Amino acid sequence: MTGSAGRADARRNRDKILAAARGMLGTDGGSLAMESLAREAGVGVGTLYRHFPNREALIEAIYAAELDDITTSAAELLEHHPPEVALRLWMDRYAAFTATKRGMLDTLRGSFAAGRIAPHTRERVTAAFRTILESGVRAGTLRADVNPEDATTLLHGVFLATVDGDVPERSHRLLDLIADAVRAPGVTRGEPDPG
Question: Which fold has domain 54-188?
Fold first, then answer.
């Protein structure tokens, strides 16, 4: 295989492994057995370990991919929805990210402590929130007096308050309250466009 074809094939395999691992985190309680993951991704165990020499490297890559998704999704949502709707949809995505991160927490703590992952999650999440908020302020649908750092703190509070055993409906209600608090006076709760 030539250099560029080999690199493209390696990239596809890495992407398949990450996609399978991200899916397994939501269904198997975060155990991520490496052999099962290789089967799920449709790659050999050797290929899996070539990309991710241990479970920690895999968890770190999943975390980075999830964080990239949540932080880039703000602009993508604004392309298809009014800011107040984009904000609520983004908060749901952030809630899913936080739930996924819980399954990786023990490993991530070690990675943060070892300096393998820079702890910039909050700053990146706040920047994504700010992107949506500023768009809503320009549109007149979100309040101009909301501090994005304060709003991010509220989101973290919701996620801390709804750990283990709390039903998703409670988290949904609390996120609705935040969305209502950020919406400009007189603006009604919007719904996502069906298509």
Answer: Tetracycline Repressor; domain 2 (1.10.357)
Closest CA to 88 of 133, 33, 43: 133
Between 1.10.10, 1.10.3720, 1.10.3300, 1.10.8, what CATH number should domain 1-53 receive?
A: 1.10.10
Q: Token pair for residue 150? A: 């304060």
35-46: b (≥16 Cβ within 10 Å) or e:
eebbebbebeee
CB-based contact 142:183 (threshold 8 Å): yes
Dihedral of CA 166/18/45/43: which sign? positive
From first to last of the 195 residues of the chain, give the pLDDT tens digit: 556 776 888 889 999 999 888 888 765 445 678 888 999 999 999 999 999 998 888 888 888 888 899 999 999 999 999 999 999 999 999 888 777 666 666 666 666 666 666 667 788 889 999 999 999 999 999 999 999 999 999 988 888 777 665 557 788 889 999 999 999 998 877 665 544
What is the amino acid identity at position 24?
Answer: M
